[in-house]
Amino acid sequence: MATRSRAATDSRDGPLVLVLALAGLSLLTALYLLVTESSIRPAAGASLLAVGFAAFAAIDRLSRRRVLAALEAGWREHRPYVGFAAATFAIGILLGVLLYALGVDLLEFVLEALGEELVGDEELEPGGEPGTESSSIELTAGLFVVNNSGPFVLAILGAVSLGAFTLLIMVFNGVLIGNLGAGIGGLIGYGEFVALLVPHGVFELTALFIAAGIGFRLVHRFGQRLRGNRDSFLTKRYLYRTGLLACFGWLLLVLAAFVEAYLTIAIVEALFGI
């Protein structure tokens, strides 16, 4: 009986430890940025992110809304679908590597697309000529948040296509990572490529898997409703716990943006001296 009670307590404390750990990591990032960046804005943004993670614990402790319990329930419900999303992403990686082995290198396509985007933005700069310092684009956390929030939202809304678009997003991102990994890894070293990807990828991909899992779960619930196995497609309790999970996933996406913009290169330089 004591063992069961201790296990139940550990289960309840799990989400609390997680959100506080992420809040602490965000705060440490803010302190690092306060020292290394000339502007205070990145540190302020990371501090707000820490507040966002800590808010889960604060609201849970200061109110009766049971936020952490609902968040954990949302995770348990969506975990199989998150796993399915990760599996489709892994299949995409294998397809990307296979395409590279067949002579299809997407690196040139990505560089060309980025070049067109930069040129387009440079033309909008008043008084700036393409290629000059005044027309360059600074890679900031905000830029990564904006770019990555699109796929995050679309992975959820892909449920409208009965999951087809969500599946396409996961496979496409996997193909891109697999193909670029095979190409870039051969140029700079696979260890370096992994170091460039993992620090922010562990948060960014988890966020994307959560979003896709929500999309796939919505499709499954809709199918259950059509078959008569479920009384309601959407309920207030389901929307509440799923909304919390989506918010948590998006905060992970923001954390990934800060790591990618300000920490990844420093980590690679520390590991490989490049």
Automatic annotation (TrEMBL):
<feature type="transmembrane region" description="Helical">
    <location>
        <begin position="16"/>
        <end position="34"/>
    </location>
</feature>
<keyword id="KW-0472">Membrane</keyword>
<feature type="transmembrane region" description="Helical">
    <location>
        <begin position="152"/>
        <end position="172"/>
    </location>
</feature>
<keyword id="KW-1133">Transmembrane helix</keyword>
<feature type="transmembrane region" description="Helical">
    <location>
        <begin position="179"/>
        <end position="199"/>
    </location>
</feature>
<keyword id="KW-0812">Transmembrane</keyword>
<feature type="transmembrane region" description="Helical">
    <location>
        <begin position="244"/>
        <end position="268"/>
    </location>
</feature>
<dbReference type="Pfam" id="PF01944">
    <property type="entry name" value="SpoIIM"/>
</dbReference>
<feature type="transmembrane region" description="Helical">
    <location>
        <begin position="80"/>
        <end position="102"/>
    </location>
</feature>
<protein>
    <submittedName>
        <fullName>Stage II sporulation protein M</fullName>
    </submittedName>
</protein>
<feature type="transmembrane region" description="Helical">
    <location>
        <begin position="205"/>
        <end position="223"/>
    </location>
</feature>
<feature type="transmembrane region" description="Helical">
    <location>
        <begin position="40"/>
        <end position="59"/>
    </location>
</feature>
<dbReference type="InterPro" id="IPR002798">
    <property type="entry name" value="SpoIIM-like"/>
</dbReference>
